[in-house]
Amino acid sequence: MTEKDTELRVSKIRDGTVIDHVPAGEALHVLAILGIDGSGGESVSLGMNVPSGRMGQKDIVKVEGREMSQAELDVLSLIAPDATVNIVRDYEVAEKTEIEPPEVVVGLLHCPNRHCITNAGEPVETRFEVIEEGVRCAYCETIVREDITDHLAV
After folding, report:
1. Residue 45 to residue 61: CA distance in whole angstroms
2. Are 133 and 145 in contact (CB under 8 A)?
3. Which helix (H) or strand (E) holds 56?
4. Cα separations (Å) of 72 from 2, 15, 99?
C-alpha cells in the first residue's frame, strides 16, 4: 500500500472559506463561531486531528459559499492564533490570510463575572481587551484565560 492509497481526500470547494492550522480539537468551536449548527444547509467539511508536520495534529474546516467577517476572524484568532484562512473563488485561492488577534473584541463574548455591568440588564455591549494571558473585560477586569469559546456571544 502506498502513501497515496492511505491519504484522506476531501474535494475542493468552488467558493467559500478554508480554515487551516486550527489546533486539534477546535474545529467544532470554529463552527460555533461561524454560527453553523447544521440547520442552515451549509456544505461543511471537517478534518479533525489530522497529521501536520508543523503542529503534530491539526483541524481543517471548509465551508462552501461563505466568507468570514472580520468579527469572526477576530474571535477565531483567540482560539486559533496560527490559523490560515483561505478565501476560495471558482476553485482557486483568491486570498490567503494569516490571522492576527485584535487589540479589542466588542460584543462577541459574554463576561463570566455575573456582577459585571454587562450582565446586569443594562444596554452595554461587552468589550474585552486582548492580552497575553487571554482576554480582560474592560468593565470589571475579569480575565478569561481558558475555554474562551465557552463565552461566545455568537
Report:
1. 6
2. yes
3. strand 56-64
4. 39, 18, 11
Round to whole Å and give the CA distance between 99 and 78: 10
Amino acid at 154: V
Neighbours of 41 (CB within 10 A): 7
What confidence tens digit (pLDDT) does each residue in 31-84 have?
887 888 878 788 888 999 998 888 899 999 999 988 888 878 888 888 888 899
Radius of gyration of the chain (CA): 17
Cβ(140)–Cβ(115) under 8 Å? yes
Condensed to tens digits (0 to 9), the pLDDT of residues 133-151 reads 889 999 999 999 887 878 8
Residue 70: CB atoms within 10 Å: 8
HSE at residue 124, side-chain half, CA atoms within 13 A, is 16
Q: What is the secondary structure of 124-142 as a DSSP string?
A: ---EEEEETTEEEETTT--
Q: Is the dihedral of CA 69, 40, 109, 145 positive or negative?
A: negative
